[in-house]
UniProtKB/TrEMBL annotation:
Domain Nucleotidyl transferase span(s) in chain numbering: 5-240
Catalytic activity: dTTP + alpha-D-glucose 1-phosphate + H(+) = dTDP-alpha-D-glucose + diphosphate
Alphabetical keyword list: Magnesium, Metal-binding, Nucleotidyltransferase, Transferase
Name used for this protein in its record: Glucose-1-phosphate thymidylyltransferase
Species whose genome carries this gene: Thioclava electrotropha
Length: 293
């Protein structure tokens, strides 16, 4: 089976977060003690994905390279792709077609944060699927802001409706998509929406039409945070801080996950700990090495 590759869509203009994003990409803003992009990156890592393309704007790409490097420090291989203009989420599959080279993919939006016990298990299960697509539904209070799943009486997916006036359910589609190798070809058949974008909903509808789309529901105990506004960015930072302060465990740490998966050695993790000096993140990595040696 061809290994699945990852895509992090970290382009866009970030205008909803102006003025703080006028000089820096939204996905490089801090979410408590780590850059935002660490969180979607570790989501793909938890699924077992090691070849990842990071899609950025042309003028932000150098900042991402400085922040993430080539990924080898985590046992990853990172590729950088520029997005000339933000023309919709489905555009990512056209930009990444050469990188994917016929492989299935998992795309995560660069401003989405996922957390929960058992997250790794449901991600690995989605990664193990070979045909069709898998997306994740999350119950929200205000579904009219999202793409919403319409279920029939048997619980089967009937449709995904973008920002409906009357939502058919409370389940929004999150910014995480596991699609098979046909995604780029399907994306080429999509026409621009009324707002001039290649909508991800339109791409998912092609899978749904073929009976090849499944929705995994994230139930209680899971958190899905979209950090696209000032208030949601602050909420995400407070959420991560509360978890880390209460539990003494990191979330969204590519260093820890790479070590746990055996992608880097204890010596390599110790070197990473030294890099961060005596801040709390470095101290955590240093403690992790000592405990697990």
């Amino acid at each position: 089976m061809t290994k699945r590759k990852g895509i992090i869509l970290a382009g866009g203009s970030g205008t909803r977060l102006y003025p703080i994003t006028m000089g820096v990409s939204k996905q490089l803003l801090p979410v408590y003690d780590k850059p935002m992009i660490y969180y979607p990156l570790t989501t793909l890592m938890l699924a077992g994905i090691r070849e990842i393309a990071v899609i950025t704007t042309p003028h932000d790409q150098e900042q991402f390279i400085r922040t993430l490097g080539d990924g080898s420090q985590w046992g990853l291989s990172l590729t950088y792709i520029t997005q000339p203009s933000p023309d919709g989420l489905a555009q990512a599959y056209l930009l990444a077609e050469e990188f994917l080279a016929g492989s299935p993919s998992a795309m995560v939006l660069g401003d989405n944060i996922f957390f929960g016990a058992g997250l790794g298990e449901i991600l690995k299960a989605a990664n193990a699927t070979t045909d069709g697509g898998t997306v994740f539904g999350y119950r929200v209070r205000d579904p009219e802001r999202y793409g919403v799943v319409d279920f029939d009486d048997s619980g089967k997916v009937r449709a995904i409706i973008e920002k409906p006036d009357v939502p058919p359910s409370q389940f929004a589609v999150t910014g995480l998509y596991f699609l098979d190798e046909t995604a780029p070809g399907r994306a080429k058949t999509i026409t621009l929406s009324a707002r001039g974008e290649l909508e991800i909903t339109s791409l998912l509808e092609t899978y749904l039409h073929d009976g090849a789309l499944s929705v995994t529901q994230m139930g209680r105990g899971f958190a899905w945070l979209d950090t696209g506004t000032h208030s949601s960015l602050l909420d995400a930072g407070n959420f991560v801080r509360t978890l880390e302060e209460r539990q003494g465990l990191q979330s969204g740490s590519p260093d820890e996950i790479a070590f746990e998966k055996g992608w880097i050695s204890a010596d390599a993790l110790a070197d990473r700990a030294k890099k961060f000096g005596k801040n709390s993140y470095g101290e955590y990595l240093e403690t992790t090495v000592k405990i697990r040696k």
